[in-house]
Structure formats: C-alpha cells, structure tokens
Amino acid sequence: RGEPNDLAAFWMPFTDNRGFKANPRMFVAADGMHYTAAAGHKVLDATGGLWCVNAGHNRAPIVEAVRKAAGELDFAPTFQLAHPRAFETASRLAMLMPEGLDRIFFTNSGSESVDTALKIALAYQRSIGQGSRTRLIGRERGYHGVGFGGISVGGIVGNRRQFGTLLTGVDHLRHTHDPARNAYSRGQPAHGADLAEDLERLVALHGAETIAAVIVEPVAGSTGVLVPPQGYLQRLRQICDAHGILLIFDEVITAFGRVGKATAAERFGVTPDLITMAKGLTNAAVPMGAVAARREVHDAIVDNAAPGIELFHGYTYSGHPLACAAALATFDLYAAEDLFERAIALEDYWADAVHSLKGAPHVIDCRSIGLIGGIELEPRPAAPTKRAMEVFHKAFDAGLLVRVTGDIIALSPPLILEKTHIDEIFGKLSDLLRTVS
Ligand code: PMP
C-alpha cells in the first residue's frame, strides 16, 4: 500500500492539521528545562510539557526506576488482584493529600480521574440514602478533560457542542474572573469571594436534595490561569457543607507543587471531599492519574455496597506497575529537591517577572500564583490568527515553549527552573510582543 506517511496518518486534535503539516514543530528529545526540536535547536520549556513535567524532563531517578520496573513486573491488574507497588504508591500519595483524604483510586489520565470522581460522588450519595442527588455542578470556564463527564461539567461550551446530549442534570456556576475589578491581580484577587454565592442560587433553583457534587479547579489552568478570589473556595466549602453537597477539586494541574504545596487545597486551606490528579503525579514520565477520596466517602460506599460490588468502576491499567514506579520515584525527587518549597521560594521573583509585562504591547492583564502565570493579550479584531498564537510560533523559533489558550499566554515551567530561566522567558516574551502587530 505504498510508503507510510506519518504526518498524514497522525490525527492531531485541536490543531490546524494543514498548517502543521506545512510547518511541523516536533520534539525529538528532552532534558531538564529543555526540549530539543527536530530542527535541532534547544527550546526552553516554560510550560512543563503540558502543565505536567514538574521536576524537569528525563530526570535520571525516574528514568532508572521505570527501566528497572520494566524488567520485573510488566503488568498486574489492580482489581481482584494487586501488586505491592500499587499499595505503596497509594500510601505515599495519601501522605501528600490533605488530612482525611487517604483513599486512593488509580486512573490513567486527568479525564479518567474526573469521571471517576463524579462516579464516586454519585455512588456515595446513593450509599447514604441520598439517591435523589444526581445533579452535578461545574463552573463556567472550568476545564475537566474530555470524557463525557468532564465535558458535561466543564464550562467550555465549544468542547460540548459537537457531541449532542451529554450528562443531563448538570449546571454551571458563574466563573470567577472579573477583569473590571481584578486586572493585574497578583496571587489571589482581593475581590470576588461573593461569587461563591452563585452556588446558593443554584441550590435554590434546583433544590439541595437534587445536587450530588460541585467540581471546580482551584486555579483554572487551561482557560487562562484564573486564580480564585480570596475567600471564594472557603465559601464554596461552607455552602456545600450546609447542603450536603460534595466538593471536588480538580487538581490535575495544581497538585504536586505548582502552587507551592502538594495540593492547592493545602495552599488555600480548604479541604474538599475528593481531589483529582494526573500530570505531576508521575512527572508525566508514564501516564497515570488518581483520585483521593475522604475516608468517610470511601467507607460509606464500601460498607453499604450490595454484596460483590463496591464500586463498579476501574481501568485495566489502573495502578500500572510502571506508572507506580514512576510515581514513587517522582515523590522521592520532589522531596529530595524540595521542589514544592522551591515554587514558594521563587514565587515573588516569578510574579515580578510576570507582572513586568504590564505595559508591554497588547498586554491587558497578568496573573500569577506559585509557578504558574497567565498573560492576556487584547484580542486582534477580525484577524484569523490570534496574537497569542503568533507569539507561540515566534517563541518556538526563538527557543521558548509557551502555551496558548485563546488570547492568553499560559506559563507553568518545571519547578527546577533557575532565576536565569525566568529572566530568559520574560526577556524573550517582552521582545517578541514588540514584533506582534
Ligand atoms: N482536569 C484539568 C484541570 C486539566 O487541566 C486537564 C488537562 N489539562 C484534565 C482534567 C484532563 O487531563 P488529561 O488530558 O490527562 O485527560
């Protein structure tokens, strides 16, 4: 059937395939803070791959752990059967979670973690005699992956539109981003905790007895780095408690040091009932996700289960031995290099750098917390290419990888970065913004 043509066969989501084929941007290797592009040049990774490479690329202890594990136990299921490393990984992960969230369910991705958490929430409500609670509440501008559950509770209408009927009985909180009051806010915005009252509106509208859970990203990442206003998450927690609603934090981006602690829950001092994770769990070396559940949630489901089935859910590759090996080595590395603390130590320098772009051409907002940053550009009226996308392409050619979401440049570098890397990232961005019309 002729010669294979990889570029033709590879279906790239979310990408102008034709444009990409004309000018492919590919990586062939990675090390520490850098990728090597197929074209040969080094690219400074200011996005941690896809918000996931928190300890830097190809770190030797993780590589070695995976290599060693690959020759020992290639695969073992984790239902009906198990393997010791799955237990060890769950125990070590539980130690990083807020007090009480020590029941771990393994998945393979963030999207699977979200669907898993939603199912756990529904199963829990049913197990305590609250079977009428089937409604799930997400938030506008929330991103929760691409499973049917995730796009249903997700707040990006464009991600749902193509797919017809999704989960029914879903509603969305208003989003928290208020540029009129919080432009150029640093850390948590001062204004907007009152937006949490929107949950009271939905409770009044639907009736608390119909609502199982609320899911939010503590810091919305993929929709442009939206940091929750001071007091907002605390107020959501209070309202959920008052009405018997479970609170789920989707920490696929924020967990593992991105905001300076093991979880954003810890950083913001709010303990949800369930936390979804992926990405930094294995430093992205092997795909893996997880859900941490409050012990009472787990116990209610298990204790009240019909004989034989506690939770009919699980993936073939849940707790895969190679993923567990990667996760354990990653936890060790985070601890050995104090990487979560490092994000705190660099936070001010990073925030100064992010906010140094205030006044740069086209910049209308800068936001940052921990080692995450968002730079919002004024939309280009009626032009096919967004300014931010132009910056992305020019940055790549100039040896810098940024992530673009709409008109926002999003940054989430590996936590091993040095101040010189921060200077390089923002020096380049500042120069590049001047070249964009
Ligand atoms: N939730 C959040 C908050 C995410 O940022 C993402 C991915 N960016 C996901 C879920 C989905 O994760 P995955 O792509 O691993 O399925």
Fraction of residues in β-strands: 15-25%
- Find the structural class using helix and strand composition: alpha/beta
**pLDDT averaged residue by residue:** 95
| Bound ligand species | 4'-deoxy-4'-aminopyridoxal-5'-phosphate
CATH superfamily placement of the largest domain = Type I PLP-dependent aspartate aminotransferase-like (Major domain)
Low-pLDDT stretches are none
CATH class membership of the largest domain: Alpha Beta
Count of individual domains = 2
Give the structure's gist in a few sentences.
The protein has 437 residues and is of the alpha/beta class. It contains 17 helices and 15 strands.
What does this structure look like?
This protein is of the alpha/beta class. It has two domains: 6-55 and 338-433, Aspartate Aminotransferase, domain 1; 65-336, Type I PLP-dependent aspartate aminotransferase-like (Major domain) (Aspartate Aminotransferase, domain 2, 3-Layer(aba) Sandwich). Helix content is 38%, strand content 16%. It has 17 helices and 15 strands. The chain has helices at residues 6-9, 17-22, 48-51, 60-70, 84-96, 110-127, 148-153, 157-160, 179-182, 198-206, 232-243, 264-268, 295-303, 321-336, 339-355, 387-397, 419-433, and strands at residues 27-31, 34-37, 42-45, 103-107, 135-139, 170-173, 211-216, 246-250, 274-277, 289-293, 363-369, 372-377, 400-401, 403-405, 408-411. Helix 12 (264-268) links the parallel strand 8 and strand 9 (274-277). The termini are far apart. The mean pLDDT is 95. 4'-deoxy-4'-aminopyridoxal-5'-phosphate binds next to helix 6.
